[in-house]
Amino acid sequence: MIRDMAAGPRVLLKRLRELMAEPLEPQERLDRIVRDIAANMVAEVCSLYVLRADSVLELYATVGLNPNAVHLAQLRLGQGLVGTIAASARALNLSNAQEHPAFAYLPETGEEIYHSFLGVPVLRAGRTLGVLVVQNKTMRHYRDDEIEALETTAMVIAEMIASGDIARLSRPGLELDMSRPASFTGIAFNEGVGLGHVVLHEPRIVVTNLFNEDSDEELRRLEDALGSLRLSIDDMLERRDVAFEGEHREVLEAYRMFANDRGWVRRLEEAIRNGLTAEAAVEKVQSDMRARMLHMTDPYLRERMSDFDDLANRLLRQLMGRGPETIAASLPKDAIIVARSMGAAELLDYPRDRMRGLVLEDGAPTSHVVIVARAMGIPVAGQMKGAVSMSENGDPIIVDGEEGIIHLRPQPDLEAAYAEKVRFRARRQELYRELRKKPSETKDGVKVDLLMNAGLAVDLPQLAEAGAAGIGLFRTELQFMVASTFPRAEAQEKLYRDVLDIARGRPVTFRTIDIGGDKVLPYFKGSAQEEENPALGWRAIRLTLDRPGLLRTQVRALLKAAGGRELKVMLPMVTELSEIAQAREIIDREVRHLSRFAHHLPTSLKLGAMIEVPSLLWQLDELMQSVDFVSVGSNDLFQFVMAADRGNTQLADRFDPLSVPFLRVLKQIADAGARNHTPVTLCGELAGKPISAMALLGVGYRSISMSPASIGPVKAMLTELPLGELKSFLDDNLSGPAANLPMRALLQAFADDRSIPL
């Protein structure tokens, strides 16, 4: 007679479901759970150890060991067999536990008479919350179905721990690991300090229905959901116009590989046959996989973990009948968004007045989501590996965007210290507001235009608040990126007119639509071509010259919006002067068209180009003579000069833009502008930090554009800067040997010696 291996786990899960429904005190519930597990598995011992915040595993319930050891017996993380399981997140199946090198004898438990040992980690979202153990006197190896049954039971216990049901059993001062404070150190992407509560950008789907009534029905549901998931991935791969969540084809190929992996599907089916619902099976296998991958050293395999997580979450949404959920409606008033990665448009989905900060596991200082966050004045800390899996929605959190640190579930004294830091920053901001009334001049009387970057209507009130001299870069593509279809000409015209109205005569430079590369419009069939290196591909002016209808519509909207006023239009990603000539012809044609129909035209039209592509460095004089102004896009120019992808997290801090070679490049551009009497502005991220803004002024820039929040600190530096001294200082250092010259440190010392605030 063939034994039904799944009967035991199913009976056990049914009994656990009944226990969870009974109105029991936490300790009694745990005691009955371990008794039922022992009876079901014919084990003489069943024990549950729970991980505390101090990295100690405490015995919370047992049958078979000394009952007086409950809440007294404890092992450090990594100590003994139980500590080894917790540290590795891997099960141990031993026929003679006492021969294992990690065995640690606890005399208070009386476990020395037991030989066979099976222990599994209690996992939730890849985090170890405890260890569940069964033991027998006889020497034996536990079967695979017994291991599976114990792991499934551990998953149920993990939900009990996460719900806080057993927290009341903790002794005063000894909190469980779920509430343990945790700190992460990464990279400061945007300065500022935010105190608030966690909002997971891709919140884990909480599975509440754990136990199935009909395994065959659950297997059918799983098969249907997997079929739909595979079809959706195949569809995305076939549609060349869409890149899944901003990633590229290799990610989708990895998704397809996972979705068709028979080993993964078999594990899901096995969990269902053991009594779980399809949703609970996905969560269990996902948690097991994440725990294993977290301990792998191969960086490629660790990167694939996020692909697997995303795929599992998509399968959960298929099973639960949910589409993409918008959490903005339920956002707390002090939300701090925690994400593995994020697109610029996704950040704009959140109400700005409720956001206090952004935490990214990945990203780089010049990635577009960081640039948008900077424009919105949101503190950002990045490279926070593990922050997502350690966070729960609603957890208290502090983001320190100055030091690149986050504190999850902080202690009260730390929270109080940061609250004071926030108050200090508020007082400093008040000083910056006072500076608005002062002229934007150096200590020795040189005037400098401090402009701001913008891209949406939400940015415009900051023009007056920051005291900016105008808008040095208006990113028109943001309007396209946050829309579900191409913005109509009327909508574009209205936005541009509103910008000019609010500017009240201050200069505004509109950059023509800069899409392509990593700025994909899913509704534009031509913007998501499969390119090996999209940053160097079909984007910006290259794309709009090939699709002139886009540029014509935008130029016409700009001309109509600027009727009776000056209009400044800037072309992005210019590589050759012929591109400027082609764009000028399109603009002239639109001017002639509107003139023919007696439209009110701008009083003057100035055309400029962005210097982002190094090829322009060898045609600077010709460039300056063919345009009315130029603007340096230091983000792209720096990545191209250094051959360092600005989105590559491994290179995020490798090269310094204040190095001698790059400062020489920037000086070369400023000198060419002065030589040809062509205005030059720099509108990249370099302009927004006092120390790098100081360097820009020293090499000849008199107009820089930055995020609104940066204007106050830069102006505070500017008013104390003896520019003549700085110019001589930089001339001496930039003309000397470049090898190993620490320019950032030299600039810092220059400022310290003269009490210049940086």
From TrEMBL:
Keywords: Coiled coil, Cytoplasm, Kinase, Magnesium, Metal-binding, Phosphotransferase system, Sugar transport, Transferase, Transport. Its EC number is 2.7.3.9. The keyword Transcription regulation does not apply. Transmembrane segments: none annotated. InterPro entries: GAF, GAF-like_dom_sf, PEP-util_enz_mobile_dom, PEP-utilizing_PTS_enzyme, PEP_util_C, PEP_util_CS, Phosphohistidine_dom_sf, PTS_EI-like. Its cofactor is Mg(2+). GO terms for cellular component: cytoplasm. This is phosphoenolpyruvate--protein phosphotransferase.
